[in-house]
Amino acid sequence: MAPFGTLYTTVNFLHARVTKILAAANLNNLDIQIAPDLQYGITNHTAAYRAKFPHGKIPAFETPSGFHLAEGSAIAYYVAECGPRREQLLGRTPEDRALVQMYSKEDVEVHETQFVRCLRRLEEQLAGEGKVWLVRDDELSLADLSVASGLLWPLKMFMDAEFRAGFPRVMEWWGRLMAVEGVGKAFGAPVKLAGRRPAADGSEAEARRGSG
Ligand SMILES: N[C@@H](CCC(=O)N[C@@H](CS)C(=O)NCC(=O)O)C(=O)O
Question: In this protein, which residues make up the domain named GST C-terminal (predicted)?
Fold first, then answer.
């Protein structure tokens, strides 16, 4: 059977932006091929690539019918939409669909204070009675996948054990999400979480060593 589509992304490491796409594809049982020959900074700047994806960025997506799509969130949305779990992933009611959009658009901020504010909001959100997933309690959605995508690199790079201890519900939710087979597989679980944070003077050589 022909694959559902081809994803253009980095081939030498798992780009955080593609994890939500791959997780949605796994849950929807869609076969996505990773373009085997992308050389970041080279092939994505060629005329052939730009003819399909004018911004020349990754991730980008192409279907056998010639549909071209850029922007990780749009691709994740499309992949979520195109399979049997579309309603679960995108929301079963107008309100749930709006919440999925809200979470999917909430970029994890680069600046640390804003990032911490995002995490606090998440922690409060998950503190609600019986709260299991971000939108509905009984099933995960694209909201969970999108937020987890945004957290992947911070968790790997600088959210050390002390930092993580401040967000116990977020970490429980993360563990729950990574235990879902198609999701854990897409995120490369078990994800090696950050070790001690780098010291400002760079003396902490083992800063990125860690476990989890
Ligand atoms: N908002 C886009 C951002 C994509 C993006 O900035 N991709 C970078 C790599 S992380 C890129 O392809 N840059 C190549 C370039 O700007 O030439 C998304 O979420 O997909």
Answer: 68-202
Give pTM, 2 decimals.
0.90
* Residue 80, CA distances (Å) to 4, 73, 137 in order: 12, 10, 19
Q: Enumerate the domain spans of the chain.
A: 5-84, 94-187
Give the chain's mean pLDDT.
91
**What is the whole-number distance in angstroms between the Cα of residue 107 and the centre of ligand 1?**
14
Edge-to-edge strands, sheet with 32-34 = 32-34, 5-8, 60-62, 68-70
- The CATH class of the 5-84 domain is alpha beta
Tell the residue nearest (CA) to atom 3 of ligand 1: 71
- In a 3-state reduction of DSSP, which class is residue 172? helix
pLDDT tens-digit series, residues 134-181: 999 999 999 999 999 999 999 999 999 999 999 999 999 999 999 999
CATH of domain 94-187: 1.20.1050.10
State the pLDDT at residue 196.
81
